Amino acid sequence: MSSNDLENLIDLMARLPGLGPRSARRAVLHLVRKRALLLTPLSDAMQNVAATARECLNCGNIGNSDICDICADDTRATGEICVVEDVADLWAMERAGVFKGRYHVLGGTLSALDGIGPEELSIPRLVDRVTSEAVSEVILALNATVDGQTTAHYIADQLEGQVTLTSLAQGVPIGGELDYLDEGTISAALRARKSI
């Protein structure tokens, strides 16, 4: 292995979210030291994923077939669609284990500054799914950012009168202390208050 190969691997690893050049260098050195235990199996797994991973034609999830396991699961509630920005959000919802319906991955949020409109996202496909799959509720599980809220309002306008629209509650997180929260979070929590 030449030093150019190592530098190339470090440069590629540094492009991953959460890794900078120093973290990438440490990770590569660790992988090389544990070549048989980590590097070779990691390389094999990455080749397999590169060859088989694909986007679900229905919801946009990542799997190894044209229709993901969630969409193919007949036990999932078909009347509910949870709309998320990206696959990482879908996986977070699945880890929580509380939603038993289907998903729809937008692929981002609307952003006039970045030139991202409804056609660059899968919003038209969502509107088609609501009609064709007899959906009764669309849950907007979008991030509480300006772009996320803009996207939620746009989707609500597109689906108005066709389906029940709900969104995730926003506000004080479990274990959160008011003194450490920003004004927007406190404001959202106060508006979404409920009786005890």
Automatic annotation (TrEMBL):
It comes from the Bacteria. The keyword Zinc applies. InterPro entries: DNA_Rcmb_RecR, Rcmb_RecR, Rcmb_RecR_Znf, TOPRIM_dom, TOPRIM_RecR. HAMAP family: RecR. One of its GO terms (biological process) is DNA recombination. May play a role in DNA repair. It seems to be involved in an RecBC-independent recombinational process of DNA repair. It may act with RecF and RecO. Transmembrane segments: none annotated. This is Recombination protein RecR. Belongs to the RecR family. A zinc finger (C4-type) spans 56-71. Keywords: DNA damage, DNA recombination, DNA repair, Metal-binding, Zinc, Zinc-finger. It comes from Cognatishimia activa. One of its GO terms (molecular function) is zinc ion binding. Residues 79-173 form the Toprim domain. It holds the Pfam family RecR_HhH.
